[in-house]
Amino acid sequence: MLSTVLRRGKQPLRIVVLFAVLSLSAVLYMAQAPATRPAFSLSELPPLAVGDWVFRAGTSSESQLIQTLSNSQFSHIGMLVSLQPEPLIVHASTDDDPQRANQVLSSTLSEFIEPKLARHFAIARPSFLTAQENQQAAQHALQQLGQPFVLAERGSEHLYCTTLLADALQHSATAFQPQWQQINAPLLRGEYLFPEAFADYPEIEWVYRSKPIK
């Protein structure tokens, strides 16, 4: 759950408030959630490259909350770090894999976009980076495997899905300056980085977009 990965020292009352927000979000989500999309065949995708960004709109109440707070079409993002024997993504997640909860983990692309986790997804290529810079970013992301997921505002120590990628991209020669967003919500106050900051970045090429469920 989201509350398990927030910085320590928060008052119990604030935890209760967050649970209330999540519960309300879950009720609204279940009332509005579309049908699960059909399974997707990777053979339908165009050629991919190491360093590609993979976005998804998740199926959980937390995903719905993230999209609502950020006014975003996506709730999660990961980086493609290898292509063989099958596309592999590194991302920071709370609950994709119950055996590896609240940490940076690797997932196959098929696992990342499976219908139970993704209502729709998209893949973008950072065209402002060279192939070598993308390889370096992927290696940096791989080095973070197993590190704990930490959701905290910009001025504090943090490691969640977007900051994992942003930190990896800081090691490239080309500056990457995504737009952080000011949030004023129970237990989430300060500047946070959402997937929409990557989706709105001017120098990207959209490789693929799945059709959203209506």
Brief sketch in words of this structure:
The protein is 29% helix and 23% strand. The chain contains six helices and eight strands, in the order H-E-H-E-E-E-H-E-H-H-E-E-H-E.
Describe the structure.
The strands form 2 sheets. The protein has a 6-stranded antiparallel β-sheet with strand order 4-3-2-1-5-8. Strands 6-7 form a two-stranded antiparallel ribbon. The chain is built from 6 helices and 8 strands. The chain has a single domain, classed as endopeptidase domain like (from Nostoc punctiforme) (endopeptidase fold (from Nostoc punctiforme)), CATH 3.90.1720. The chain starts with 11 loop residues before the first helix and ends in a 5-residue tail after the last strand. It has 214 residues and is an alpha+beta fold. It is globular, with a radius of gyration of 17 Å. β6 and β7 form a beta hairpin.
Strand content: 15-25%
Oligomer category: single chain
Mean pLDDT: 85
Main beta sheet: 6 strands, antiparallel
Instruction: Classify the secondary structure makeup into a structural class.
Output: alpha+beta
* Level-2 CATH architecture: Alpha-Beta Complex
**CATH fold description:** endopeptidase fold (from Nostoc punctiforme)
Q: What would you call the shape?
A: globular
How far the N terminus sits from the C terminus, by CA atoms, comes to 27 Å
